[in-house]
Amino acid sequence: MGNAVRVLLVNDIPVVAVKVCTDGSRNDSDCTGSGIYITKLNQELKIHSRNPDFCSVFRSELIAIDEGLDSLSSFFYSDEIYILTDSRSSIQHLANWHRVRDNTGMNILNKLKSLLVSYRLHLQWIPSHVNIQGDEIADALAKAGADDASVPSAPLTYLELLSRAKSRHKIIWLIPPVHHWYQGSRPGSCLSID
């Protein structure tokens, strides 16, 4: 068989179930993207989107889940929907639903709540980079989203804005100020005004 690639399938998922594979990615330029691959029998939908620069990979993963839930309307549902992600932190974040305060997490929880009325939902972790077909496609889509030249539309969170400011002003923050009153001649000196 030589160089044949072995494609792994996630066990115990019914063939007629809708499978939503999601992933987030960041490239070397701090651009982030989300990838969503939805499949059911012979239907498939591939989506990639650019996220705000300096967005965390964790948030990119959540954005992918959120957009994946939005995209389910284009599929004829079966009784079960499987959301498959390689982000354990996203699942843990959503599992602590009573502590979720971010907009993306709240959007996901509200969508899950409305879908639970009619469908059985499964949010499942899958290992990354082990040739699981849906995850590999979602990973490639997330990378394409990060490399997309379009301008992201989602606003940054406070922590992302802070990270962006730190990276832009890092040089300034590392160089001590040059004001004469910072140059104290003895320990404990302070600014004095006559």
Secondary structure topology:
Layout: E1 18-26, E2 32-40, E3 43-51, H1 57-70, E4 80-85, H2 88-95, H3 103-115, E5 120-125, H4 133-147, H5 158-168, H6 170-174
Helix pairs in contact: 1-3
InterPro entries: RNaseH-like_sf (IPR012337), RNaseH_domain (IPR002156), RNaseH_sf (IPR036397)
GO molecular function, one term: nucleic acid binding
Protein name: RNase H type-1 domain-containing protein
Task: Please supply descriptive tags for the structure shown above.
194 residues, disordered C terminus, alpha/beta, Nucleotidyltransferase, domain 5, RNaseH_sf, RNaseH_domain, nucleic acid binding
Description:
Residues 14-147 form the RNase H type-1 domain. It comes from Araneus ventricosus (Orbweaver spider). InterPro entries: RNaseH-like_sf, RNaseH_domain, RNaseH_sf. Pfam families: RNase_H. This is RNase H type-1 domain-containing protein. There is one protein chain. The protein is α/β, with parallel strands linked by helices and 194 residues long. The protein has one domain (13-174): Nucleotidyltransferase, domain 5. The chain contains 6 helices and 5 strands; from the N terminus they run βββαβααβααα. The chain has a 5-stranded mixed beta sheet with strand order 3-2-1-4-5. Strand 2 and strand 3 form a beta hairpin. Helix 1 runs parallel beside helix 3 (103-115). The longest helix is centred in the C-terminal third of the chain and has 15 residues, at 133-147. The chain is globular. It starts with 17 loop residues before the first strand and ends in a 20-residue tail after the last helix. The model is unreliable at 1-9 and 188-194 (pLDDT under 50).
